[in-house]
Amino acid sequence: KEVVFDYSRAAEFISAEEMENFKTTVMSAKDTLVNKSGAGNDFLGWIDLPVDYDRDEFARIKKAAAKIQGDSDVLLVIGIGGSYLGARAAIEFLTNSFYNVLPKEVRKTPEIYFVGNSISSKYIADLKQVLAGKDFSINIISKSGTTTEPAIAFRVFKEMLTEKYGKEEAAKRIYATTDKARGALKNLADEEGYEEFVVPDDVGGRFSVLTAVGLLPIAVSGADIDRLMEGAASGRKKALETPYESNSALLYAAVRNILLRKGKTVEIVANYEPSLHYVSEWWKQLFGESEGKDNRGLFPAAVDLTTDLHSMGQFIQDGARIMFETVINVEESPAEILLNKEDVDTDGMNYLAGKSVDFVNKSAMNGTILAHTDGSVPNLMVKIPEQNEFYLGELFYFFEFACGVSGYILGINPFNQPGVESYKKNMFALLGKPGYEAQREELLKRL
Ligand code: PA5
Asked: What EC number(s) does its UniProt record assign (predicted)?
């Protein structure tokens, strides 16, 4: 069993000949990535991460996770973008759907809340209420150490932690994941004596889930980070060594670029499991931030199904024909719920008696795939055998590798994000940050 990309349902939109003709382009993009000869080649540390990571730090991550599990009711994870989405995707994929509200004796690990991924006063105030009377620790994650959203949340919750425990004990409850040498957070962590974890120089935010950025919060949730890394190592081996014709990551990169060239400018990732919502969010960031530049790229969108079949389903079936759909299919549900027969069949559901809820879900999925295909929406599928750490590791690596290759096929640098700076400059100017005085005047005139 393994994570597999399957495009057999899109056969009427992509011919075998087109795939063969595209092979040279894909293999050249793969070589550019693996030989580190393309744009952004100083950010390719993620390629070997699953087999070449800091074992000592990995052991420290497990130790810190055990300490947090022992002394905290709650872990606050503060970060945004690549310093946020991977951990959240993994935790929601691997744990109970109602993790935070499970009785503590059942969950056995701390509640985990994410903050610093918006600038919402309400969210911060609401979270402060949740923390009242609870023992908590903070994992502040910022590679640059200067990002506004997490920095603001950290100020608020550091203050709360210090009021509760005093400066010295609070410092022992703060774990800083940041650059190994530079940045405001690194300086503060050194000064205050926080335990520090490193975001490697050559790993960009959206490729950092398998570093301490993702691993510490994931380990605190009780997930097995060894299995996660083993899965990623397996994904890496397959991506690097399997021939084009059966290489999931390469085929996915090929198919999405062929479809883009045919005018399909939107890729919708569709999951049929609510616990994959944040996997889709992580995927959106990975592909959106990597490929959307120089006026190019596929627009990555996501839907949760069958939920959104009752909203976005109309557009996908019948609206502007601009998209293709990539279904992420968990083949074996972790739970089996059987439907029973009722004496009076008021709701007309007795025909499903003896069937499992997952059978209904899979039937909805298969029916939708055919309907969307009939509506000229090419359907691709990424199959995940089971929802566990190993296959999640494979999935993360599969998408990361496909993203690198796809970005080079597209002719852009997949590893920078110059566009993210524009809003920051305007925000700093409007906030009156020193050094932005001239821009401030200009912007105020326009508002
Ligand atoms: O992928 C990226 O590089 C970004 O999404 C960053 O992760 C995000 O902006 C947060 O940056 P930092 O970790 O420096 O606070």
From this structure: 5.3.1.9
The residue to mutate among 140, 141, 144, 208, having the most atoms of ligand 1 within 8 angstroms of its beta carbon, is 144
Top mutation candidate among 43, 147, 152 for ligand 1, by most atoms within 8 Å of CB: 147
343 φ/ψ angles, rounded to the nearest 5 degrees: -60, -45
| Residue 41 one-letter amino acid | N
Residues in contact with ligand 1 by the CB-under-6-Å rule are: 80-83, 142-144, 147, 150, 204-206, 289, 417
Residue type, position 125, single letter: A
Here the ipTM equals 0.98
What is the per-residue pLDDT across 360-369, written as a single tens digit (0 to 9) for each?
Answer: 999 999 999 9
- Does 420 have pLDDT greater than 90? no
What's the token pair of residue 404?
């690198």
- Check if 325 is active-site: no
3-state secondary structure of 244: helix
- Is residue 186 flagged as an active site residue? no
Please answer whether residues 367 and 309 qualify as being in contact, where contact means their C-beta atoms are separated by less than 8 angstroms.
no
What residue type is 183 in one-letter code?
Answer: G
Give the number of residues written for the chain: 447
Distance, CA of 411 to chain centre:
24
